[in-house]
Every structure is written in structure tokens, then in C-alpha cells.
Amino acid sequence: MTLIKSISGIRGTIGGRPNENLTPVDTVKFAAAYGRWLQKHTGRMALKVVIGRDARISGEMIQNLVVSTLVGLGMDVIDLGLSTTPTVEIAVPLEKADGGIILTASHNPKQWNALKLLNSKGEFLNAEQGAAILDIAEREDFSFATVDSLGSVVNNDAYFDIHIDEVLDLELVDAEVIREKKFKVVVDGVNSSGGIAIPMLLEALGVEVVKLYCDPTGQFPHNPEPLKEHLGDICKLVVEEKADFGIVVDPDVDRLAFISNDGEMFGEEYTLVACADYVLSKTKGDTVSNLSSSRALRDITEKHGGQYHAAAVGEVNVVEKMKEVKAVIGGEGNGGIIYPDSHYGRDALVGTALFLMLLSERGGTVADLRASYPAYYMSKKKIELTPDLDVDSLLEAMADKYSKEDISTIDGVKIDLAESWVHLRKSNTEPIIRIYTEAKSQQEADALGDRIMEEIRETAGIKS
């Protein structure tokens, strides 16, 4: 059982002992710490906070605890109930709220849950703000309101519709163009809130929907991370139904993966590539993804006359870089689409609409579309080190070894080679170096990863 306290929020497994798992005690403590931070940050005591959750079995319990804690601090709560991460992000500024909390452990299995924390823009807090909340929680530096100053709760179940309307109102989304194509799409909602939101959007766009695991029971029918090894059922059903493609989302609907018409994975890395291809064909500008994302985005961006920029891993870092360079679209290679004309957060609904527009205008099959993009293959490895080794010094040594190549050190060490790249990052919690590589074939990507692992071992004096 696990409890992870980090600058991006708190997550853990349900049950067990306080301070070792995500128990009711820990939930109240960290909700109170967030509320107290908001009060200090704004200089006001009476605030408004938006709350929403995915369909996890523990979701309603955790939500009741969080809502009651904030009310106890004297805050008013807009309770969206069952929701998605991007829906809560959109709701915060629309409600003119001071912040928001999303109750979801994203792609983690059902025994996990988490509190993800937002600012008044509906964007994730930065590292400094997250650290301040951890400090408040550690010191239990909060004081609750008296009986006459308690907050209130307003339930609002309209935000799926509001979110979909926001997507349909985007300048680059033309519902009539999509309706004319009469697409047929299979949706795997992993029995969470995406099983409601994605079909609602598709039906509003005139798409025939075949539902798979769209009952929001929180009983995930497979590992909820949308990777190939977990998605055999939808890959088979897309072919059986002769669908145009399939859509897979994670439990909180900020990651988006497609299944091609032939039942093969479109590739999570290529979700952003395709959406960027469409946006850049209409809007000139730059793109951003994190350092561990596919080089294919750079290729597509340059094809459209834009410039690609890399950010440190983490959504908040990608958003910060997008704002800095005024990127027209960005995201992460895990299927996270960030489209500023909507909001600065990963949004599977926005990504779905942009992808449908691309298909509507481009024609052909989804398999044809995938084949039209540069082919890259990734390998992900890790090397375990002894606790006494200085990981930072090892990474510096690797950067020196490849100093004649294009090197980035904003997040570990990224080495860009002519036909491939390698990204080395250390774990924040254990002596591990993660090794991500990409090349023009799987064999080359795997071989590059193995070579780098051996070079790290030699540098560290570790026997193979």
C-alpha cells in the first residue's frame, strides 16, 4: 500500500493506516492544506472551489471528505460530481472560482485515488505552490471556520454539456463537416467518466457510437493505462464492427489513444502529431511537447513552417513553455492534447474533435493517415543503481561524453543524434535512471537503449 506526497498533489492506495495510504485522515489533511494555501494566496477566507471526480469506486467517499473539509474552512463548493479532468479545468474559470480539485489517479489501477490541484485559471499548480501546500499539511497549519461562517455546496451536473458546447464552439471545429462523413467509432471508456463524455461528444457530431466498457462503475475491465497490451478487446471490436476507428481514454479523460480501422494501434505518440497536423494546416505557429515525446511532432511542425520546442517532462512544464513561445498546440506523447484556444490542459474531448476534423478533410482511412507520418519507434528502459552512487554526476558524465551532439539538460540529459535520440532522467524517489530512446526502427531504438545502459554501467563502475 502506498501514499505519495509530491508537489503535484497527493495520491495513494485506499485503505490501511494514515500517512501510509490515502485514508480519510490523509484526504482531510491535504484538502485542508490546499484550502489554507488558497486563503493565504488570495488573502481571503471565503472562497469558491470546483470539485469533480472520475468513476473510481472510492471517488464518492473521497469527494464527500474533500467537500466537507472545504466547507469547514468557510469555502463555497461547486460540486460537479462525476466529471473529467479537462471538464473541471474548464469549469474553474467559467465559475469564476478560486481553484479546483480533481479526484482521480489518472491511469493508475482502481485501488488508487488522488487529489489533483488547480489554480484560478483551471491549470495545475507549479512546483513552488505544491511545495507550500506540503509544508502546510506537514505543520497542520489550518484553522476551521466557526458555525456561522461555514461554506455551502452547489451541485452542478451540467458541465458535460457545457464542456461539449465549448468544444463545438471552437473555430477549427465544424460539426456539419464531421456529420457529413457519417463516421462509425468504437469507444472504450474503461468504465469511467469518459464512457459518458466521449459518446456524448461523438453523438453531438453525428458519429455512430459503439460503446465498449462505458458504464461508469469504476470497475476497470483492464489496466486503465491506454497501452497496446491492454487494448485487445477494442482492437478486435473495431474490425468486427467495420468501424472507422476506435477511441480509448484513461479514467479521467485527459489521455487519448486511437485504434486504426485495421485494428492496429495508431500510437499514443501520434495522437498529438495528427492533431497538430490539422491545427498547423489552419493556424501558423509553433508547437511544444516534452523531451520524451516523439520527434515526429518536430517533423510535422517544420513541414508546416513552424518551430518545435521541447519542455521538461510534466504537464505544468509543457504549459509554461507553450505560453512562453505562444504555441498554437502542444501536449505530451502519452496522448495528451493541449489546445490553448480551448484551455491550457490535456483534453481528450478537444483532441477527438480535432482528429475528426482532420479525417473529414483529409479523407482516406485512419491506417492510411498513420502511414503518412514519419515512422519512429521508441524503447523505454531503466537501470537500477546502488543508493551510494551520485546520479547527477553520472548524468553530467554522459552529457560530457556526448558534448559534440545536440544536448539539452533542462530535464536530465537529452541527446539528439542524427537519426535518433536518447533521454536520461533520474527518479525522484529511488536510485534509478530511466532511459528513453527513439529511432527509425524498433531494433535501432532497443540497441541504442542497450548501448547507453552499458555506457552508464561503465561510467559508474557497475558490472553487467
UniProtKB/TrEMBL annotation:
Q: Which InterPro entries match?
A: A-D-PHexomutase_a/b/a-I, A-D-PHexomutase_a/b/a-I/II/III, A-D-PHexomutase_a/b/a-II, A-D-PHexomutase_a/b/a-III, A-D-PHexomutase_C, A-D-PHexomutase_C_sf, A-D-PHexomutase_CS, Alpha-D-phosphohexomutase_SF
Question: What biological process terms from GO does the record include?
Answer: carbohydrate metabolic process; peptidoglycan biosynthetic process; UDP-N-acetylglucosamine biosynthetic process
- Gene Ontology cellular-component annotations: cytosol
Q: Which cofactor does it need?
A: Mg(2+)
Entry's Gene Ontology molecular function annotations: magnesium ion binding; phosphoglucosamine mutase activity; phosphomannomutase activity
**Domain Alpha-D-phosphohexomutase alpha/beta/alpha stretches:** 8-142, 171-263, 270-374
Entry keyword set = Isomerase, Magnesium, Metal-binding, Phosphoprotein
Positions of the Alpha-D-phosphohexomutase C-terminal domain = 395-454
Q: Which family does it belong to?
A: Belongs to the phosphohexose mutase family.
Specify the protein name.
Phosphomannomutase
